[in-house]
Amino acid sequence: MGKNIVIVESPAKAKTIEKFLGKDYHVVSSFGHIRDLKKKDISIDFNNNYAPIYEVPTDKKKLVSELKKKASEAEMVWLASDEDREGEAIAWHLFEVLSLTEDKTKRIVFHEITKDAIINAIQTPRKIDKALVDAQQARRVLDRIVGFELSPILWKKIKPSLSAGRVQSVAVRLIVEREREITTFKSEANYRITAVFITKDTQGKTVELQAELPKRFKTKEEANRFLEVCKDAQFNIEDISKKPSKKSPAAPFTTSTLQQEAARKLGYSVAQTMMVAQKLYENGLITYMRTDSVNLSALAINTAKAEIIHFAGEQYVKTRQYATKSKGAQEAHEAIRPTYMNQHTIEGNRQEKFLYELIWKRTIASQMADAEIEKTTVTIGISTSEERFIASGEVLTFDGFLKVYMESNDDEDTTEDTKMLPPLHVHDTLQYKKILSTERFTQRPPRYTEASLVRKLEELGIGRPSTYAPTISTIQNREYVEKGDKEGEKRTYNLLTLEKGTITDIIKEEIVGTEKSKLFPTDIGSVVTDFLLANFASVVDYNFTAKVEKEFDIVASGKLEWQKAIDKFYKGFHTLVEDSLQNSTKKVGERLLGNDPTTGKPISVKIGRYGAIAQIGLTTEEEKPQFAALKKEQSIETITLEEALELFKLPRTVGEFEEKEVTIAVGRFGPYVKHASAFYSIPKEIDPLKITLSQAIDLIEKKREDDKNKVLKTFAEDASIQLLNGRYGAYIKQNKNNYKIPKSKKAEELTYEDCLEIIKSEASDGDKPKKKKGFKKK
DNA sequence: CAGTGAGCGAGCTTCCGCTTGACTT
Hints:
- This protein is an alpha+beta fold.
- The chain is 34% helix and 25% strand.
- The chain has 19 helices and 30 strands.
- Strands 9, 10, 11, 12, 13, 14, 16 and 17 form an eight-stranded antiparallel β-sheet that branches. Strands 2-1-7-8 form a four-stranded parallel β-sheet.
- A hairpin with a 2-residue loop joins strand 20 and strand 21.
- The radius of gyration is 33 Å and the shape is globular.
- It binds one DNA strand through strand 3, helix 3, helix 5, strand 22 and strand 24.
């Protein structure tokens, strides 16, 4: 046992550091926070100056007692958690929980995992920065107050189990508001003029030259008039200008930029990227993957430089230090980079390989020379008009960093292809081949992707690298937001073509607005957002986090007690909470559509216990209202009275089969046929409003046939046990429970006794909860 | 997988930020 124990946050980090420090130092990990506000209740003592009620969570108890034992045996305890607000708090909680004393505790910090940095840290220890810890306590307490006072209001007023919070509610608001911008967006047409000219190259061969009019016309008439003017015009080159320009590489990856690029270039979801990166980190291939810093260590820059010289040459090197631009960055770590710059590729699965290569390229490119480009602009005069055509071309004169990496962007139509121009001279005259006027439309704003939402949140300073991925899944798990595709819509546009002196006028068709894997708000998301905006505007304000962060900074500087900061916020906030509870309207988000033409009763839509529903009539003593669930593609905001009435055409009876009624209805999982208390799903191709009795009977008979094939084996001894064929292969079913068959056994050969054995053994170790973490019931 | 939505009432849900496992039905 060493004389020194060093505690860091991550076990992978512990392993690396131990190698640098030698045998006198034993490096262990706290696995993040070891103590937090009690899980249950708000756990803040409002009568005692907001005293937090902390506890060691059950899954950390064992770890904490081990750490306590090791700390008591060591001569010196080095608290080496990250140098940011959370890291300082972890150090303080360790100090408290492990009952450390000041004389045998030292606080050290380093931003990079290099031997120099760590030795240097050991030589310059300090004390725990209590003001910084207090800033963290303020942050923690504020988030708990917001989350645990707002969520119950939503349970009462909208639906149970909903949630609200400083981060997630703003994320949902962004998506809801973007959707509304899209629905209210009116696109405007304009007319873009492009021309194809004919000229000769050095060998006298005919080549084409593409040019565009910088001006766009507002109306078709104007565009047409311009083409008329071009009919008999002379075109001649007035000017050719060449301008050198440069392109610089992007900064090395942070968590957020890695998520964006992996989504764009590799198509990974935010969660996927983090899982793969974690794996690379654990295998020692990359530095820490949750960081907001673009900083590279001196070691990294030097080895990158050596590597660039090795594979490309000295002229490709340009070392750079990047400065972070994002709000609220705490920069406790390095940027995400390969551990070894000379390792261009790695062993691993496809996903790991691709992500590693992306990180390698981005890091290396960041230390490479600018790309040099020569831009040529050709101005083409028109004898009959004041307007001028512009042709532009680009030649890459030095590739620089582009040799390895090009950052991509989110723009949906990247039609701007840069090309080389044929040889041209001033005063050359040109012949037009054709001149086109194309009707173009202004574009609506795009829906967010997971990654572009992360970028927006980071821009607003909301959320941290460790929470981007979990936040994205929370808002989807709560059903505030759905990831989905949208088919494009057909749109017609006008195309005028001037060719050989005549203008033709045609209408063409295009598909626009196709979207894949975008975030769409649900009805619940919209209703919750509206409610929060109406009652807690200050909390869902895009600047709320930035404002409270300023307060936390004052706390961290030691100029303000954290409880005072909280008190300032809580007084106003809690008044809003009480006001909104007092407000008698029980349900929010209800919309009246009109009256039922046959009965005259009011028809409305609202959020029910299981999602959006339409309702005919009111709840009175005499009678119950009628309900119908909205279809997936319908929404409370846009459904019309006619569409709502359609929903009440189900359930309906289509006839009889085997002397029992056959009815059609729609439930949680879509439309179904009900017959003799059994259910049969109706496939998408069949319209439940039009399904006939014979079609329904077909469905019933097909399902019966399938069920027959599903049973592999039954036992005479016990009818409750069956061997069934399922989605994941054969399994045993007893009553309502399923049991998997061990891989060593063949399903067809199992005897009754074998089955009993399997059930018994699985039931015994199935005691612990089988629920998956972070994934809530459907 | 399960096919609901009144009203009653018990008992549950919920935040953000640090970390990594144990699970795959």
